[in-house]
User: Fold these one by one.
Assistant:
Number 1:
Amino acid sequence: MEKEESVIKAIEEIASQLGEESVLVDDLDRSAYSYDASGMQAVPSAVIRPSTADDVSFVVEVANKFGIPITPRGSGTSLVGGPLPVSGGFVVDMQKMNGIIDKDEENGLVRVEAGINVRELNEIFPDRFMPINPDGAGFSTVGGLIAEDSASPLSIRYGTMGDLLYGVEVVLPNGEIILVESPGPPSRRSILNLLVGSEGTLGIFTSALLRLPRRPENRIAYKIELTDISDALILQEEIEKSGIGVSAFEVYHNYKELVEGAGTEAVAFIEISGTQECIEIWDSRLKSILGNMEFPFESMTEEKADNIWEGRKNLYEVAKVREEALKVVSLRVYPSLVRDTVQEADRTGSRLKLPVISVHNPLLGWVIVAFLYNPIDEKEVERAERAVSNVISKSISLGGSVGYGLGAGINRITQDMDEGFVSLLSIIKETLDPSWIMNPGKLIER
Amino acid sequence: MGVDFNDDLRKELGRCIGCGACNIPCPMFHIEDLRETEGARARIKLLSMLGSGNMELTEEFLSYIFTCMNCGLCSKVCPVNIDVFGAIISARSSLIDMGYVPLVTVDMREARRSTGSPIGDGLVKGVWLPPDFQPSPNAEILYFAGCWSHTVPEVALASYKLLQQISESVTTIGFDEPCCGGLIYVLGERDNAEDSKNTLIEAISKLSPKSVISGCSLCTSVFPDLGFTSFSSFIEKMLDEGKIRIRKSLKPKRNKIFLIPSCKDSKLASRILSRIKNIELLEVPEWVCCDCGATLLYSTDPDRFSRWLEKVTDIARDLEANQIVVEEPSCYSMIFKMLGKNKHKGAKIVSFPHFLLELIT
Ligand SMILES: Cc1cc2nc3c(=O)[nH]c(=O)nc-3n(C[C@H](O)[C@H](O)[C@H](O)COP(=O)(O)OP(=O)(O)OC[C@H]3O[C@@H](n4cnc5c(N)ncnc54)[C@H](O)[C@@H]3O)c2cc1C
Ligand code: SF4
Ligand code: SF4
């Protein structure tokens, strides 16, 4: 590919400041930064690997001068194409900035560079942990988690990434480095929250102050067989009424059929965690609810319980057993619409002849739909794409919103879906990034 | 250049969801400061692009696909059960079958033709044995040293002596011990690897030993059908059964041990070492392991092998290790040759058989 003169000049300037080894231009490297976990692809003109916030600021200034788009990238685990340079330009790989800057054990606070991953966060304090581990392997970076406001099965208890964020250093689209952090705990969150979930469109995070919660002493997980999805909603009501503080609750629709070939329509996984005493009380209450409702269940502790949430093992179990690829979409709907949304996903799957598994979290109204397809059958790949768009538009017409946890990414948010959000964000974007160089093509269109 | 992978391989590559879990244990990813290109995920993704015609097969691409530590750690973590390393090996052999032999393996072919082993370097086998050594038939244990062990005679000898502590009836093939073919198998030369293996099977069956203990863990893992037991797992079994005992303990100033394990079972040697009284076994990152699979990197890209070594020994130094114990003779030999000495950054580098022998006798 012939590179434009401005791109060549910008690359030269950046290489002379950051060093040749921090600017990757050959075909292998560019291709290696052309994908994430979404199945989509876009090849950058170059990949820049900064080591400091000043490096990032320099890169952004140069990109601005030449009007070249830049796309921040963490570990590239996005399921929605977030780190793909859809308008070309540079990918800024943040993974080299993965240090721990300082920590305050007493308050569970830690200041880290934005490229550190969940695995490394989990090693900082012996008795604290990172409850948001979206990809399961702990590969996602803090920058990516903030940019997507990532959620996890434990979000019922711990919230989403934004809830753990106490401050952030960000390089704005004009290259300015800004620290958004109160001297004490955040008391006016609005500006911080503007950056949370901004999907790399408003700036590049270079470091963050996080508060990690304590690891619960004990946990018990339950695997419960449900006849259909309505059972899940009844179960949710009973749990809410009884005051059991579940830390995770997910229902897998079509799981047994896809993994075992037959069986009940839905399987629920619930976790309770806390001290021994509190767990004992909740355990007996939960067991009596399950007994009254005559739902068959098994309970698990320790490693077996942990395994359930890691990377949504059950969801990927399906792809594993069936040896097929997955296309995933994440939605959030009011609890009363969960059932309709899941049924809509099933209908789409059967119309397009694709097996489908839905995971929903009844308390959050979070629904993840995954279509299985054969990756070497072009028609099936195309049908899987169509299935995703179909579920998104159906869910919007039912009254759902797109992008909870995973982010909206490429072409997922439209004006008619979220008019106020799009108008406001556009104004902010125009102000901060008048040339729209910062991750264009994501979250909102110009 | 166009390539035509079979449907099974294309599907296996296409199933990758791109989660990146296989980058976490990948030593190449860590050697290169987490550069995506070098990790296992990129190898799968780029091969998938190659198979679907979205990438050109260049000489650079070819050598990229053939050059890694060949540790296989990437295969142990995939959430959708892709045998990542297996897929890389299949792609390599398909490329070779299509006539795309990378320059990086040409030397190995030549070495194999001239010395019977792909590791080259004017390898002479059996220098650790008496010049008039003859293998004995029907022995209880046949020690298969593996090519690299012959390059570090003291390690081969230590292994042999350890086995002699266990049984009076130990033998080895000696001067003309064939290569098992494991290394060329992982480099995609399926047919040649099969030939090598068969030559070895023939040599062993002439001696009809009761069991074969292999000094190279790549041979046992690539060819389970050989029925070999790896040196370390045999030692563990013998310790369990009380056939040998660790008698000595470590001196206080020499007890911080950093283990570079074999890649096939990274816990095995540490289980053995943890039996030693007053040992302080240091925690090693999961991407640290090394065996004969590293040969290609060592011989064709020594700068990168050296970067791996520096990163690993930096970690050992930060943990204040007194000794670095290297489980695999192949890895010990590569490290020793690269450094030209067995002390580095304040730690003594010792081979596992040697280390054990001293504590057992
Ligand atoms: C198997 C699997 C399961 C998943 N399950 C979940 C789930 O349950 N919940 C969930 O929320 N997500 C899930 N995800 C998606 C993904 O893990 C998260 O979105 C994660 O936060 C992305 O982190 P990353 O470091 O890989 O970022 P990337 O994928 O590299 O980037 C994601 C976005 O963040 C931006 N970005 C990255 N770093 C920075 C930075 N320093 N500054 C500014 N912007 C930046 C990018 O531009 C992009 O828009 C899953 C992914 C996989 C592969
Ligand atoms: S075999 Fe080892 S070095 Fe090669 S890609 Fe897999 S993990 Fe990386
Ligand atoms: S672990 Fe499996 S699915 Fe994930 S990137 Fe590697 S090969 Fe792909």
Number 2:
Amino acid sequence: MTTENTMPDISIEALRQGDRSEFARLVDAYSAPIYHLGLRMLGNEQDAEDVLQNTFINALTHLHGFEGRSSILTWLYRIAANEALMTLRRGRPEVNIDDPVDSGDDGEALPPTQFVDWSALPEDELLSAEGKQALDAAIQSLPENLRMVFLLRDIQELSIRDVASALDLTEANVKVRLLRARLLLRERLSFYYGERMRKEKTNG
Amino acid sequence: MAETTFTSCEGLLGSLSDYIDGELGAELCRQIEKHVAECENCRIVVDTTRKTIDLVHVSNASETGLPEDVRDRLFKRLNLDDYLKPSAK
Ligand SMILES: [Zn+2]
């Protein structure tokens, strides 16, 4: 159903010459991962669809600017990430639209505070309907800058280098944000699964 | 960075992502393994962080398709209607 892990042979030259069937192939190859990035980032289908459409419209307009230094998917992620972050900011009237999209907040990772070992719980229990909901909510609650890095690296499975290139960050920045995101997520899941383990104990 | 040692829990935290992603050298891995063998809290942090990432992978593996109506509207917006599969209608 998806082509995330296979790289179809898209001809940039054909795209630049306005080959519409090649563009249709590009859209079919990469629309699903772009849509899911938007969905995870924005949390609703309508905004995710807008990001998806705008990404390919922008890609079509800026094809001449694609230099082939990154893969075409990384380039599309770059456009999509900008679209998504701008959409998030538009929803917040108190924020000046001219401010940089990324505040560059790269503070230290918070030290862990939850030390419940839930890692050996069976997977079908961890990912029960309720567990999956808790996981989704925890991802959704990550601060935007951390969430974008986390989604690209741990869900779309880009390399650190490609995440850096898609978001115009240094690899060191990406690593710092990734660590913060993972630790925050771990902290929230530990709290949730810890509660569940306690409840199960008292219920016998 | 190369001479980082894991005499402290904070030191381990700084290399946690690289360790989990399998991007640390053998010597640093050995130091981490030595530390977690003696530090229960760090052992839990390593195991639950790794499990967190596993769960994210598993839970997202099923969410990779594009809904047919979203694809239809995308192709129309891009003036690619004629490349929509006839069956997609
Ligand atoms: Zn420790």
Number 3:
Amino acid sequence: MPVIRVKDLSKEYLVADKQPGLIGTFRHFFSREYTSIKAVESIGFNIDRGEIVGFIGPNGAGKTTTLKMLCGLIHPTSGVVNVSGNIPSLRKYKFLKDITLVMGQKQQLIWDLPPIDSLKVNAAVYGIPDKEASYRIQELALMLDLKEELNRPVRKLSLGQRMKAELLASLLHRPSILFLDEPTLGLDVNSQLRVRDFLYNYNQKYQATIILTSHYMADITSLCKRILVIDKGQLFYDGPLAKLTQQFSPSRLVRLEFNEQINFSLLKHYGKIIKQDNYSVKLLINRNDLPQKINNLLNNFSIRDLEIADPPIEEIISKIYSNKIE
Amino acid sequence: MLRINIILKYLRILFQFWSTSLSIELEYKLNLFVEILSTIGNLAGSLFVLSMFYTADNTLGGWPWHSSLIILGFYTLIESFTISFLQPNLSRIVKQVQNGTLDFVLLKPVNSQLWLSFRTFSPYGLPSLIVGIILIYIGLVKGNYYVNELSLIISFVMFICGLIILYSLWFLIASTSIWFVKIWNANEVLRSVLISGRYPISAYPLALRPILTFLLPVAFLTTVPAQALLGIAPFSLMMVGVTIAIVFFVFSINFWKYALKFYTSASS
Ligand SMILES: Nc1ncnc2c1ncn2[C@@H]1O[C@H](COP(=O)(O)OP(=O)(O)OP(=O)(O)O)[C@@H](O)[C@H]1O
Ligand SMILES: [Mg+2]
């Protein structure tokens, strides 16, 4: 039984056309003309309890819009959304207590006060008794590696510390469904790693369902077995991450190291040269001819080391984003 | 039982809301200092006006000076409510729509209208609260008015109705920011309307009175509670006041629900 069910979901935004300047504003006030933007177009998917799903796509693809419909912030133009048996846009308290939305660009913590004050507000809002709340705060703080930061004004925290405190505030009520919109935005590599580890642990501990958007592929590859790719409002791919590579990249990446300096032009008809150095080269070789080409290479060159891998996911994604899929 | 639980829950929430907003004030000590200075300044101004009232021996729109003091007192009480709640909270709605942090409010299992209306409490309304009560008291004593418990209660009810009317109007205008982000400055509009409540309605030209009573129900904010206190409020007018309060309040609730259907949440 899937915990999230989405069918034919669409969202159109009406945006007022407004000419620049004062006269434009004036005219606009009397005759409003609208253009509609199709942000999401009849997408559908099911997600099971406990899954961590990566939701990726280029800027403006409709990821945030979809997440906002899933958590009930905005009403769909058409289609069906069901999250753990609820219609999100009704925003029933029972539903709201079961979900959370974390946005990398927006924060709920009170800027001038230490996070602990915001946490107390949230405890009251979710009706968590004081004792239970302080127990949960301790537990989550430990998982997030937060200590005295909780007692320092938010405005004096670093971006990473703030994001971790945001996560704590968003998870105090132990939601079982997490919508995370770029939770690692702007974080350095170490902080990203921390947040990722934390999300993984939270998922394991509470069997939480997580939908995650991120423009850092490392977030996706390390957390998500399954990904949804959306482009121009349409669902483009839904399946295992590994399969995306096979499906959209017909080649594999071969790295060769030679014992001697070689003439790189000789390598041209083996595959596409990505990068070349004095003694090493990276080649993209079609999967179908791979064994034979490798064989030939080994026969014709004096090779010290050889490595075969999938091309980096970023390349595949960027290919998908720029619509260069053959 | 269930009701009591809900009330307790909301009391706890309000306690957290207001203690955090007081802590924020304390974070900025200079600001606190300036605000206290300006409150003292305001107070001095009111007292000056007051002393002028005492030297004059006249009536205003048929109200003797000491009874118009009572009106001024109610006006000051309204102002206290405005400074403590309406202004800090409702002007924030526009900002929250603009920067999209309204999202967090809407995703909490609490009534969003209650949250938005009572999230912060500004202590700077408290002096006006005290001054207002003192003004009403002086007016009653100087005018040799006898007030029985019943008229006290009725006056209180009418005053609450006035607050509800003002609140609902203010909240209504603030809700339109869902569509017209930025266009309104509800504060300025309403403050200037409000000032007209300083004087008895009958002090205004005949043509303005219906407007101030029914279109912008200023009369119900100050004049009617004062009349009720003195036992001279027409019963029908009080009924109209109660009705307007209920209608406005219910309308504000439904209008907010309706507005939220159009909320698109600032893009991020
Ligand atoms: N509140 C809004 N009003 C009008 N149009 C909007 C609004 N929010 C988003 N859009 C438009 O809808 C489309 C999808 O936006 P959305 O924010 O969902 O993209 P996204 O996939 O989250 O992109 P990003 O990776 O940049 O965050 C965009 O064309 C955007 O301009
Ligand atoms: Mg987005």
